[in-house]
């Protein structure tokens, strides 16, 4: 309470705060202020993440042991702006609550009165006897928990274990735990009843052993895979346990299921007798629930063969020398399980089997898989009938993916914990889902299942949901919010697991959940829960014959160019927002380009999200609310621009989230406007598209020019002034929309920029590629002013262009990698568009390169994809392939180091980090351009190439990252020197004899 100026530690979890505290100590902030900052941070965490956007009443009561620290209630009062009442013994409120509950139960006659003598209780001697290992009972549980024996007054009590077994024994309660736990039944069906390891038919020729990783969707499709291979004469091998040594070799911080994938795969690789084959599919999509085009799985599931092969490269090549072959077909089941036929046949042929045999084996395998699914549903239906026969009973549906909620190695015994309390437990794929809706734009196949099941559970009076998720799960950061919205007031439990989750914490949460469910059912039967009535109507946008329009909350239809309407752009990097705003302004829109996000925007974003979503969503949410709360006029109709996509990453969920938020906060006359990347943002017509392209190209080029000026101008301040003036003139020309005038302006601007005095010639300036996630690499706050930091160290930043992403979307569209199909006419239009884009790119870049401040080469996606293709498949849509391809292409050729930056938990960034941590070395680089003499000279005696991966949560980088950045810069400086030397030597060698060195520069 002595703190006067507490630093802002935000509202992060303890792990982040620790590094913030270290930073504060280094900055010389005094102890009292640091402690005050910590106290505020605890209160902000509660206020932002637990309370969230629920309203606060007039009287605030605060309890719990935390209040013994008197600073906490004070800080909370300051945050909520209301007085807070703290009881005299805040830490004993739970005990008082229990006493009151006992009193109530005695009064109700559901508890018998007994006499206890406090002294006798206090005097009782408790002896701890030798613990034993639980054998698992008749359910054959194999967790082997250690159970304590406690002796009181000569009587021994077993105590502990991960389930309620010993509590039940002590209280003589008996449940058919095995029968109640249908998750266990599911595992039995998949791996035992319908899965197989060997074909019993003696006539079958033995073709060797094939390993299947026990990861991800194997936990659903094992019957299909295993029968297919055994029918062909292979013996199937699945790893029995995940090896910690394997998990430790992961190259990036992955979610728990991906960690397990490493562990199991390593077990396969370490088998004494090397396997002949390893089946490691790129699993792209599960069957679509709506016959639609997209039901993909998360990028980390899809990325499995790529990051595993990177992590265990050395071991795999050793095995390959001994004859092992790793088979990685693309399995895309969007159109149904039958679509597995093509990739499985391919694999069979690679393994030397005829297509005819393959087809026969597939028929049998498919039959087994479908029979397994059918039996799962039969079990589910009969369980529901049994449940409904006794309305007093409840059942819990486990909301999870097969690999995190339905298998022993991942679910931490949660289903068993519930079943041992007499509760029936159903995996979500046991309940009939066919007639249910999911949510619009739900492109994740597992998300479709989860939300369909949520609708069923919501409606069923005896079903309740337990959602098992994993720390840093990307899709769940959105899906859990949707799940809770569907549940409304119906209680549900969310358990977030990772390798450190402790049993005790789970037990408490489950107990509390079951108590809440009980109380809820009592309230429902007493009619004390009234349905929520919502009358709010949010604004919406639509395209009418290519003209964008908005409908207000009161139902008025307005053209989006109407004076009453403001089109707000979040900052996507200042220059890009400036450029796009100018183009829209030129089209008659009333545009506001929001300034780059700051601390206040970040805080507002965090307060209105779960903070588990990715940083761009948090910042763009904060931006929208910042404008509404601080700038929006009462009669203004606000349209917020938010692009979208169709997976497999989270970006496409942003605008759905925003629309839900507008509804939740009941923000009138606010609508979200979205053009899709899938149609290459064509929603607004060809002319708009063309001009937006000019704007994007120019903002990309000017971003790099700015960085070069920061690093290399003799007088930075006046050079930045020149830059700002020229950029403003370019924006005016962009708004004018006439290419001839734009060209004229660009010529004038490049002359002005060219006149800036520089410290050294352009080729001699060391350059760093800043690649990774498109928003974070451009946004000043997200990248923590990295460009400026690098400039201070003498490096110019080359930021991967936004144009690269647009060209990549076109590339995916062209090749059908994004599930889209073009008609003949669309193909012609698409080709014309590409030509026109290439023409403008060439022209704009040729002018801008005259500034002498930027290396404005034409962008081509094919070579980037080709460079990346030994490490990652083009069928894994998203930024990972671009990050891998451009880092390997550029390093040691144009730049002396690469930094891949992304938001905390960014899935594509983690995949590229895992791959590049292995691939950024001279051997791999030389393999991209084997005949390049200059490159060979540069990389002689160099092993690892400078590469750094950074995750940002919008707060200052922790010390560890700063230290890594220092080391990275030293290595980059060294590589730069080598690049310059090699280039000089090559130039000398190329020069005809007799020409002096100084003639070179003339
Ligand atoms: S991030 Fe989530 S959906 Fe993706 S692999 Fe991990 S647990 Fe599964
Ligand atoms: S690429 Fe990263 S930041 Fe973008 S949606 Fe995916 S996880 Fe989020």
Structure overview:
- By secondary structure, this protein is an alpha/beta fold.
- 49% of the residues lie in helices and 12% in strands.
- The strands form 8 sheets. A 4-stranded parallel sheet has the order 7-6-8-10, with helices on both faces. A 4-stranded parallel sheet has the order 13-12-14-15, with helices on both faces.
- Strand 19 (565-569), helix 23 (574-586) and strand 20 (591-593) form a beta-alpha-beta unit.
- The longest helix is centred in the middle third of the chain and has 35 residues, at 355-389.
- The site of one iron/sulfur cluster has 13 residues, from helix 11, helix 12 and helix 21.
Topology, element by element:
Blueprint: H1 14-26, H2 31-51, E1 60-61, H3 71-80, E2 84-85, H4 93-108, H5 118-123, E3 126-133, E4 146-152, E5 155-160, H6 165-170, H7 177-180, H8 182-193, E6 208-212, H9 218-231, E7 234-237, H10 244-248, H11 256-269, E8 277-279, E9 282-285, H12 299-302, H13 304-311, H14 313-321, E10 325-327, E11 330-332, H15 341-350, H16 355-389, E12 395-399, H17 402-405, H18 408-411, H19 414-419, E13 424-427, H20 445-459, E14 463-470, H21 474-487, E15 492-497, H22 503-525, E16 540-544, E17 547-551, E18 557-559, E19 565-569, H23 574-586, E20 591-593, H24 599-607, H25 615-630, E21 637-641, H26 654-664, E22 670-673, H27 686-712, H28 716-736, H29 739-754, E23 767-772, H30 786-792, E24 796-799, H31 802-815, H32 824-848, H33 861-868, H34 879-890, E25 898-903, H35 907-919, H36 922-928, H37 933-939, E26 947-952, H38 959-990
Parallel strand pairs: 1-2, 6-7, 6-8, 8-10, 9-11, 12-13, 12-14, 14-15, 19-20, 19-21, 21-22, 23-24, 23-25, 25-26
Antiparallel strand pairs: 3-4, 4-5, 16-17, 17-18
Helix pairs in contact: 2-3, 8-16, 9-16, 13-35, 15-16, 20-21, 23-27, 23-28, 24-25, 27-28, 27-30, 27-32, 28-29, 33-34, 34-35, 37-38
The structure holds iron/sulfur cluster (2 copies).
């Amino acid at each position: 309470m002595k703190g006067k100026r507490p630093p802002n530690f935000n509202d992060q979890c303890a792990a982040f705060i620790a590094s913030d505290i270290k930073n504060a100590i280094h900055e010389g902030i005094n102890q009292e202020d640091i402690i005050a900052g910590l106290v505020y941070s605890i209160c902000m965490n509660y206020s932002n993440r637990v309370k969230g956007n629920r309203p606060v009443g007039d009287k605030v009561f605060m309890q719990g042991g935390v209040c013994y620290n008197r600073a906490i209630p004070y800080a909370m009062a300051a945050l909520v702006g209301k007085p807070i009442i703290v009881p005299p013994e805040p830490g004993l409120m739970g005990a008082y609550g229990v006493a009151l509950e006992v009193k109530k139960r005695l009064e109700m006659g559901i508890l018998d009165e007994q006499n206890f003598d406090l002294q006798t209780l206090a005097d009782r001697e408790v002896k701890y006897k030798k613990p034993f290992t639980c054998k698992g009972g008749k359910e054959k549980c194999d967790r082997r928990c250690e159970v304590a024996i406690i002796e009181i007054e000569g009587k021994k009590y077993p105590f502990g274990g991960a389930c309620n077994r010993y509590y039940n024994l002590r209280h003589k309660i008996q449940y058919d735990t095995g029968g109640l736990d249908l998750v266990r039944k599911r595992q039995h069906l998949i791996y035992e009843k319908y899965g197989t390891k060997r074909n019993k038919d003696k006539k079958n020729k033995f073709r060797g052993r094939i390993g299947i990783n026990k990861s991800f969707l194997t936990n659903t499709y094992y019957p299909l895979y295993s029968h297919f291979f055994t029918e062909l004469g292979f013996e199937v091998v699945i790893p029995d346990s995940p090896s910690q040594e394997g998990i430790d070799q992961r190259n990036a911080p992955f979610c728990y299921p991906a960690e397990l994938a490493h562990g199991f795969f390593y077990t396969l690789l370490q088998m004494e007798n090397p396997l002949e084959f390893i089946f490691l599919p790129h699993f792209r999509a599960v069957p679509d629930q709506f016959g639609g085009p997209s039901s993909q799985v998360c990028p980390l599931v899809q990325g499995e063969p790529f990051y595993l092969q990177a992590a265990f490269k050395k071991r795999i090549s050793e095995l390959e020398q001994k004859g092992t072959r790793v088979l990685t077909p693309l399995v895309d089941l969007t159109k149904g399980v039958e679509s597995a036929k093509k990739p499985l046949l391919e694999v069979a042929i690679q393994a030397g089997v005829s297509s005819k045999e393959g087809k026969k084996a597939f028929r049998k395998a498919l039959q087994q898989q479908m029979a397994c699914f059918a039996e799962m549903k039969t079990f589910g239906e009969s369980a529901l009938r049994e449940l409904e026969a006794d309305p007093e009973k409840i059942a819990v549906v486990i909301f999870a993916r097969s690999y995190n909620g339905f298998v022993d190695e991942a679910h931490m015994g949660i289903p068993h914990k519930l079943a041992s309390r007499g509760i029936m437990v159903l995996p979500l794929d046991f309940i009939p889902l066919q007639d249910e809706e999911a949510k619009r734009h739900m492109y994740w196949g597992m998300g479709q299942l989860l939300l369909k099941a949520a609708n069923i559970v919501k409606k069923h009076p005896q079903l309740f949901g337990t959602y098992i998720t994993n720390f840093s799960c990307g899709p769940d950061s959105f899906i859990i919010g949707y799940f809770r919205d569907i549940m409304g007031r119906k209680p549900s439990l969310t358990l977030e697991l990772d390798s450190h989750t402790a049993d005790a914490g789970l037990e408490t949460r489950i107990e509390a959940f079951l108590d809440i469910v009980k109380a809820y059912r009592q309230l429902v039967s007493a009619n004390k829960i009234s349905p929520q009535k919502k009358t709010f109507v949010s604004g919406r946008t639509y395209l009418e014959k290519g003209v964008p329009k908005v409908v207000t909350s009161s139902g008025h239809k307005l053209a989006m160019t109407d004076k009453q309407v403001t089109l707000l752009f979040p900052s996507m990097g200042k220059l890009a927002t400036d450029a796009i705003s100018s183009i829209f302004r030129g089209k008659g829109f009333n545009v506001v380009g929001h300034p780059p996000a700051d601390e206040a925007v970040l805080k507002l974003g965090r307060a209105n999200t779960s903070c588990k979503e990715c940083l761009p969503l948090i910042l763009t949410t904060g931006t929208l609310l910042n404008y509404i709360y601080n700038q929006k006029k009462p009669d203004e109709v606000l349209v917020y621009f938010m692009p979208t996509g169709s997976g497999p990453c989270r970006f496409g969920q942003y605008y759905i989230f925003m629309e839900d938020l507008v509804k939740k906060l009941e923000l009138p006359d606010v609508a979200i406007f979205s053009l899709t990347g899938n149609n290459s943002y064509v929603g607004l017509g060809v002319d708009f598209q063309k001009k937006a392209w000019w704007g994007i190209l120019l903002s990309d080029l000017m971003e790099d020019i700015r960085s070069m000026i920061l690093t290399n101008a003799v007088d930075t301040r006046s050079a930045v002034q020149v830059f700002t003036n020229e950029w403003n003139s370019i924006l005016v020309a962009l708004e004018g929309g006439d290419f001839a005038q734009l060209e004229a302006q660009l010529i004038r601007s490049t002359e002005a920029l060219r006149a800036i005095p520089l410290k050294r010639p352009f080729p001699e300036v060391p350059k760093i590629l800043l690649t990774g996630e498109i928003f974070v690499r451009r946004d000043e706050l997200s990248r923590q002013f990295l460009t400026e930091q690098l400039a201070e160290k003498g490096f110019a930043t080359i930021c991967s262009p936004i144009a690269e992403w647009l060209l990549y979307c076109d590339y995916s569209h062209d090749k059908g990698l994004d599930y889209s199909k073009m008609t003949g006419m669309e193909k012609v239009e698409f080709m014309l568009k590409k030509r026109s884009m290439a023409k403008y790119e060439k022209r704009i870049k040729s002018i801008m390169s005259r500034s002498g401040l930027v290396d404005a080469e034409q962008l081509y996606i094919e070579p980037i994809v080709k460079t990346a293709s030994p490490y990652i498949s083009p069928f894994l849509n998203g930024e990972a392939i671009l990050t891998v391809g451009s880092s390997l292409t550029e390093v040691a050729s144009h730049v002396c180091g690469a930094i891949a930056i992304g938001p905390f938990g960014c899935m594509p960034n983690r995949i590229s980090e895992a791959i590049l941590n292995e691939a950024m070395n001279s051997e791999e680089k030389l393999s991209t351009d084997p005949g390049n003499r200059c490159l060979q000279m540069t990389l002689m005696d160099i092993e690892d190439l400078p590469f750094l991966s950074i995750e940002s949560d919008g707060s200052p980088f922790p010390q560890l990252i700063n230290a890594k950045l220092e080391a990275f810069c030293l290595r980059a400086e060294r590589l730069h020197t080598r690049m310059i030397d090699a280039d000089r030597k090559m130039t000398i060698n190329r020069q005809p004899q007799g020409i002096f060195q100084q003639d070179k520069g003339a």
